[in-house]
């Protein structure tokens, strides 16, 4: 398939693929959509999730308990529970079970109201943090929730300690050549400046062994879409995980954001997203760089993007991926694109 072809082709029929193992790397809403998409194709989906969030409920629990922030992990669990394909498969066997799963997925996402100490905390964040504190092992706590709710798939952190994102940001001083160091995921995501480079604290953290094993064991590994500096790039800054990405025989697919995000990537072109990722992980190799056809019109811009994809050793794949009128990936279109590539 050439770079000008649509990865989705004429629209493959979505169907489960026997024995397909997929590992999805990301965080937040981008990973939620990817997991929803992949669940159309297989129940054997492992989510590997960033653990640097320091805002909202996650930030409060992290600061108070010293535990891994639970928010993105909770969202990934809810995505696997409530994916339309997962619920439909349950309805065919046990409608009552499907209804319970759908209800519990909503419950895990429900945030307490009011103005007290619990205000703003999702139920799932408190449940996961409580189990983590009791077991002393976030992987065991996540596996316990998977077993408790009888969820297909697995959710894993990319590291076993809470991480801090630190960025060199330009545009905050009078001299545009001067960078300022900004620390914290929320600060990086909302900065009015332009992040140039990000680091993790602690530097070169130990990865999650189970996450590396899931990457090595997968048939397909996806990275992105998501907040580029805080949900995508951190995955290649964990040496154990980058090594697993280098060693795996899985087909590796990089899904690029449909549009720049205010704050983190204001003014970024699709090509710029690739250049920044490559600067952080020049040894990273992927098979497919997948972009939305509307975000990169045919012509010179797409030619430049093909060259940028080539720096990863990848083919550029162009497909209709967006929910119409939005900058959000459509899970059905994403799943069809994955099918088109692996078929």
Please write out the topology.
Blueprint: E1 22-26, H1 28-38, E2 45-49, H2 56-65, H3 71-82, H4 84-93, H5 95-109, H6 123-135, H7 138-148, E3 154-157, E4 164-170, E5 179-183, H8 185-190, E6 194-201, H9 209-217, E7 220-223, H10 228-232, H11 239-247, E8 251-255, H12 270-280, E9 288-292, H13 300-310, E10 315-319, H14 331-342
Parallel strand pairs: 1-2, 1-7, 2-3, 7-8, 8-9, 9-10
Antiparallel strand pairs: 4-5, 4-6
Helix pairs in contact: 1-3, 1-14, 2-6, 3-5, 4-5, 6-7, 9-11, 12-13
Keywords: Cytoplasm
Organism: Gordonia neofelifaecis NRRL B-59395
Function: Required for morphogenesis under gluconeogenic growth conditions.
**Which fold name is given in CATH as the topology?**
Rossmann fold
Low-confidence stretches are 1-11
> What Rg, in angstroms, do the CA atoms define?
19 Å
**CATH superfamily membership:** CofD-like domains
What is the strand tally?
A: 10
**What percent of the residues sit in helical stretches (DSSP H or I)?**
40-55%
Main sheet record: 7 strands, parallel
Mean pLDDT: 93
Assign the CATH architecture.
Answer: 3-Layer(aba) Sandwich
Specify the number of helices.
14
Order of strands across the widest beta sheet? 3-2-1-7-8-9-10
Percentage of β-strand residues: 15-25%
Computed structural class = alpha/beta
Q: What is the rounded distance between the termini?
A: 11 Å
**CATH class descriptor name:** Alpha Beta
Number of domains: 1
- Shape label: globular
The run of helices and strands is EHEHHHHHHEEEHEHEHHEHEHEH
Subcellular location: Cytoplasm
Protein name: Putative gluconeogenesis factor
Keywords: Cytoplasm
GO biological process, one term: regulation of cell shape
């Amino acid at each position: 398939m050439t770079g000008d072809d649509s990865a989705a082709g004429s629209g493959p029929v979505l169907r489960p693929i026997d024995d397909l193992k997929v590992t999805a790397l990301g965080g937040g809403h981008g990973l939620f959509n990817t997991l929803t998409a992949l669940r159309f194709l297989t129940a054997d989906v492992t989510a590997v999730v960033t653990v640097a969030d320091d805002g909202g409920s996650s930030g409060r629990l992290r600061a108070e308990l010293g535990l891994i922030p639970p928010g993105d992990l909770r969202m990934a669990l809810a995505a696997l529970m409530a994916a339309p394909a997962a619920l439909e498969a349950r309805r065919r066997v046990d409608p009552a079970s499907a209804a319970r799963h759908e209800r519990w997925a909503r419950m895990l996402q429900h945030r307490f109201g009011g103005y007290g100490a619990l205000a703003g905390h999702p139920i799932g964040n408190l449940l996961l943090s409580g189990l983590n504190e009791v077991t002393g092992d976030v992987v065991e706590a996540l596996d316990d929730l998977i077993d408790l709710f009888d969820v297909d798939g697995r959710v894993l952190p990319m590291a076993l300690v809470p991480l801090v994102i630190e960025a060199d940001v330009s545009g905050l001083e009078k001299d545009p050549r001067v960078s300022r160091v900004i620390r914290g995921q929320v600060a990086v995501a909302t900065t009015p400046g332009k992040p140039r480079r990000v680091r993790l604290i602690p530097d070169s953290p130990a990865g999650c062994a189970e996450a590396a094993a899931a990457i090595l064991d997968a048939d397909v590994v996806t990275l992105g879409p998501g907040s580029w500096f805080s949900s995508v790039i951190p995955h290649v800054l964990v040496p154990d995980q980058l090594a697993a990405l280098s060693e795996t025989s899985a087909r590796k697919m990089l899904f690029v954001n449909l549009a720049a995000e205010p704050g983190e990537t204001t003014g970024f072109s699709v090509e710029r997203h690739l250049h920044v990722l490559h600067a952080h992980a020049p040894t990273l190799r992927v098979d497919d760089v997948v972009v939305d056809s509307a975000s990169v019109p045919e012509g010179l811009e797409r030619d430049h993007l093909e060259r940028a994809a080539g720096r990863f050793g990848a083919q550029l794949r162009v497909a209709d991926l967006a929910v119409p009128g939005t900058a959000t990936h459509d899970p059905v279109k994403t799943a069809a694109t994955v099918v088109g590539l692996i078929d």
